[in-house]
Amino acid sequence: MTTSRPFPDCVAHYDPNALPVSAAQEIVRQWAAPRGPAPAERVSLFDALDRVLAEDVISPIDVPAHDNSAMDGYAFAGAKLESAGEVELTVIGTALAGQPYANALGAAQCVRIMTGALIPPGCDTVVPQEFVKREGDAIRFAASALRQGQNRRLAGEDLAKGRPALRAGRIVRASDLGLLASLGIAEVAVRRRLRVAFFSTGDELRSVGETLAPGCVYDSNRYTLYAMLRRLNVEPVDLGIVRDDRASLEIALRRATEVADVVISSGGVSVGDADFTRELMNSLGDVAFWKIAMRPGRPLAFGRLWSGPRPGDGESALFFGLPGNPVAVMATFYFIVREALLAMSGAAREALPVIEAVSTEPLKKRAGRTEFQRGVARRGDDGRFTVVTTGPQGSGVLSSMSEANCFIVLEHERGDIDAGDEVRIVPFAGLI
Ligand code: AMP
Ligand code: MG
């Protein structure tokens, strides 16, 4: 092992043939450093959606820029309220959004004001129109109906000038685009999109459009992977189907490592195929682990590959060798790959949402591995979530993923679950 390819000893404490999921996640976290120097490029707002901010966005202005009214009503000097009983004021003008009332007001005067209009000079309080009785130019209302300063939005209360409005590492959402626009910002610095090459392995695989010979199956993993990669807004590089032999796999891995930051394959890591894949990985790079104590998804290779003639030479890429079974591909992507791709994209870490739910049925579970069953969760009238599995949980049953709306996460140490027991669920939050 050369010094140019540091190999953390994080695996040393565990059996690399059966790592607990939490340990595997920790190793992946350590290996998945952000790629490339930030900032990478400036894009216009419309192109910024789902991109990762490369730097903090500092607010160039106060939002709102001036004190303004939160209600339709009447603006006046709130000191008036100190005299208890009824307040009586004369309406001397109108302030509309975009048409301020700029003159000074006398002691017993007020201005008709609409939501968003600037608070006139000397005023600090707005009485909502439904609180007042109006007769001609006079309004009356009970002083006890409000306090001084009420119904006024303060300048800078949404975003203060000079303060970070959004932080580096933020994945830009719809609300953020609006927020940036509200600051008058037309462009932001975003990180380069991560390039992720992916391919399927298996002599039995056929592409959609081909006829199926007996014993063959259509390649579905490339589609689920493509979709999940698109959801993460990385740049997917589809390398197709690769035959189950060492030479083809080596060509595919080298090519993928040259063009991408991360390489994801599916199939060819379970018993039988495992040996030549593992041997190949060892000759092209470092293997961090090989099997996870997880179901579905037990065979899962993770490491780093190099494109050059020897490990440490040429381009490098992280490698995830996912299992072939379609459900296992999705589960391992969700719980092992996703976070690494986000971290390498420069995104701030955000844990998956976890909800407690009551299992309405007994579940078979073996202690010593984490299981990810497919569930349908529903919120009951009492506000609590219940969850039921989608039925057969074979790791090839892709329809179970389509029917489900969550993973039921059964922790490593846990044994069988009784009906009525609490379990943790992770809703499919937009990725699946
Ligand atoms: P493997 O891990 O290569 O032994 O594959 C395990 C199971 O998943 C086998 O039944 C394969 O036929 C199936 N499989 C592997 N790759 C794919 C794929 N890309 N699409 C659909 N099924 C697959
Ligand atoms: Mg295979």
From TrEMBL:
InterPro entries: MoaB/Mog-like_dom_sf, MoaB/Mog_dom, MoeA-like, MoeA_C_domain_IV, MoeA_C_domain_IV_sf, MoeA_linker/N, MoeA_linker/N_sf. Pathway: Cofactor biosynthesis; molybdopterin biosynthesis. Residues 197-343 form the MoaB/Mog domain. It catalyses: adenylyl-molybdopterin + molybdate = Mo-molybdopterin + AMP + H(+). Its cofactor is Mg(2+). Keywords: Magnesium, Metal-binding, Molybdenum, Molybdenum cofactor biosynthesis, Transferase. The keyword Zinc-finger does not apply. One of its GO terms (cellular component) is cytosol. Its EC number is 2.10.1.1. GO terms for biological process: Mo-molybdopterin cofactor biosynthetic process. It comes from the Bacteria. It is an enzyme of class 2 (transferase). One of its GO terms (molecular function) is molybdopterin molybdotransferase activity. Belongs to the MoeA family. Catalyzes the insertion of molybdate into adenylated molybdopterin with the concomitant release of AMP. This is Molybdopterin molybdenumtransferase. It comes from Caballeronia humi.
